[in-house]
Amino acid sequence: MRVVIVKDYEQMSRTAALLIAKQLRSKPSSVLGFATGSTPLGTYKELIRMHRREGLDFSHARTFNLDEYFRLDPSHPQSYHTFMFENLFNKINVNPDRISIPDGMTEDVENFCADYERRIKQAGGLDLQLLGIGRDGHVGFNEPGSSLGSRTRLKTLAEETVRDNARFFKDKKEVPRLAITMGVGTILEARQLVMLASGEGKADAVKRSIEGPVTAQVTASALQLHPSVTVVADEGAASLLMHRRYYVYVEKMAEKYEADVGI
Ligand code: PGA
């Protein structure tokens, strides 16, 4: 696991965008997994800048999103469909036919979820999955107790998550209580994972996921089982890490020897 500690949100966003751009440049037909929430917004801004200024080309890429609220219309301003189109897809040259986001309005959840998994496999599997982390240590909406082998399915959101998400909704009664999310097992099958964390509010979750035991109570801790993970955390999010100095030192060595010595 590579733990990249950067000064602030801007540097976190730039680092993550560079990792995604590197993946896309080495394989233009990459299958990219995207995430929503406030954390990846800066990364998307940077990807848009790279597309406009540096010709970063998404035309051959396929995308799959991690999750979507259940029974929230895709046209709702807070749906993850709206989020992705407004903050990324409308501003890059990705082909709309190659975009997949879970359908929170589906009448047949079980079939939809099985089909989502099939579509990821048919696309050749996820090359890179971008992740945020919840304050309860969730990745996707895999709340505490989610099986580490779980697949795409309907999940009940934890109270803390509902409270955190409420900040985006004018009418608090509208805040969804359920979501369709890729499972931990689905996420772990991506060839590369990039997890972002910003601010002190995430420091405890980051510490538990990177340095705590692997447990279904903190689903981000399952990333410890994956062979190719980069965690990009700013100073605040990294502030409780016990081996902080070592991670910084590893990155210095990686620079010096121009090798991925940390993975
Ligand atoms: P946030 O959400 O980026 O809005 O903090 C992250 C998450 O819950 O996964």
SSE layout:
Layout: E1 2-6, H1 9-26, E2 31-34, H2 41-54, E3 62-65, E4 67-69, H3 80-87, E5 99-100, H4 109-122, E6 128-131, E7 153-156, H5 159-166, E8 178-181, H6 184-188, E9 192-197, H7 203-211, E10 229-234, H8 244-257
Parallel strand pairs: 1-10, 2-3, 2-6, 3-5, 6-9, 9-10
Antiparallel strand pairs: 4-8, 7-8
The protein binds 2-phosphoglycolic acid.
Shape: globular
Measured on Cα atoms, how large is the radius of gyration? 17 Å
Bound molecules: 2-phosphoglycolic acid
Q: What kind of assembly state do the chains in view correspond to?
A: single chain
The proportion of residues in beta strands is 15-25%
What is the number of E strands?
A: 10
- Could you give the order of strands across the largest sheet? 1-10-9-6-2-3-5
- Helix count equals 8
- Tell me, rounded to a whole number, the average pLDDT: 97
Query: Roughly how many Å apart are the termini?
Result: 5 Å
Helix and strand pattern? EHEHEEHEHEEHEHEHEH
Helix/strand-derived category reads alpha/beta
Main beta sheet strand tally, sense and closure: 7 strands, parallel
